[in-house]
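Same chain as my last thread, 48 residues:
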Amino acid sequence: MELWVVCGNDSAERLYRRLGFERMGAYEVHPYDPGLGKYVMTRGSGKE
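reply #2:
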């Protein structure tokens, strides 16, 4: 399972870490605001 988090949203990252997600290396510019970035967090193997 994966989700994207907007850079600087530390409270969301803390919540997702508590739920077992880990930050991965993928990074993109946010589609609705080019001034923001976002990164992917994943949990599990993707085979669930």
